[in-house]
Amino acid sequence: MLTREEYFEHRSQLQQQSEALTWLEQHYMDFLVSVVLDAAPTLHADFSRSRDLVPCWISYSPKQRGRAPVGDSQPWSEVGEK
After folding, report:
1. Does the residue 44 lie in any domain?
2. CA gyration radius for the chain?
3. 4-16 helix and 18-48 helix, angle to the nearest 10 degrees
4. What is the pLDDT of residue 33?
5. What span, in angstroms and rounded, lies between the C-alpha atoms of 47 and 77?
6. Is residue 6 part of a domain?
7. Domain that holds residue 41
8. Which sign, positive or negative, has the C-alpha torsion 26, 28, 34, 37?
9. Of 52, 40, 42, whose CA–CA distance to 76 is shortest?
10. What pLDDT, on the 0 to 100 scale, is given for residue 9?
């Protein structure tokens, strides 16, 4: 655990390096945005595919689980997990 003095020392050092921290934050945020944008079409396609299976799920509904199932279970989330 930090003492009060150590906290203010670290805080002062970070304030003096604010430009470097801002640059690092912008650099890694740009990287993360790039990665997500590159993966977005694949993610969208994986999760959109679930609509194609609705007729099958209506005819062959999955086993109902839980304490008081209401009979409308559709495994939407399973499509994107694979």
Report:
1. yes
2. 24
3. 80
4. 98
5. 8
6. no
7. 15-63+73-81
8. negative
9. 52
10. 94
Whether residue 1 has pLDDT greater than 80:
yes
| 29 lies in some domain | yes
d(CA 18, CA 64): 55
Domain count of the fold of the chain:
1
End-to-end CA distance of the chain: 43
- Is the torsion defined by CA of 42, 48, 50, 52 positive or negative? negative
| Cα angle for residues 24, 27, 29 (degrees, 5° grid) | 105
Say what the pLDDT of residue 50 is: 72
Residue 7 lies in a domain: no
At 13-59, the pLDDT tens digits run 989 998 988 999 999 999 999 999 999 999 888 877 777 777 777 77
Residue 72 tokens, joined: 């409308």
